[in-house]
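Why does residue order matter? Because the sequence determines the fold. Keep that principle in mind as you read this record.
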Amino acid sequence: MRRLCVYCGSSSGNDPLHRTAAHALGAFLAQRGIGLVYGGGHVGLMGAVADGALSQQGEVIGVIPQSLMDKELGHGSVTQLHVVKSMHERKQLMVDLSDGFIALPGGFGTLDELFETLTWLQLSFHDKPVGLLNVGGFFDGLIDFIGHMTRSGFIRQEHAASLLAASSADTLLTQMEEFRPPDLGKWIEKLAAEGR
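Structure:
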């Protein structure tokens, strides 16, 4: 994988562990020769993951909407900063530039990016791995809820299983390198057979 996209909060949250983990992830990717694509900000976990990669001379590509750039939230030291017109354009470009996706702790925006990317994988709009870096069990409740949606018949097991998760960056990267996307053809056949 040449580049990985990291979705994360523009806030640092209340637990210093999250900022430490974001900085460490950026540094880890740079040490492995993997470029970072992220939301382009200098604040919160976004700033920490970028600073971590830059501390190891890594490639860092930011993608930020003009409206946030106007509020002086853009990172001034990244390798390349794309300033786009909208959030939709931002998300599409981040997907286009990346070979996989990692979510760190964050809020609504992080979940929006995560689930849109995961939905695109489910629909075979891309075949790239999507993972959670489950820092301090932050995503445990989300993982449980995805299990609930699966048991309730709204998500197929193979699609639920396509969301990777690990508590360490090294383990998650190994899972991502070994990832094989679910077969959309089989899913469509099952839907047709069930009359959906």
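The chain has nine helices and seven strands.
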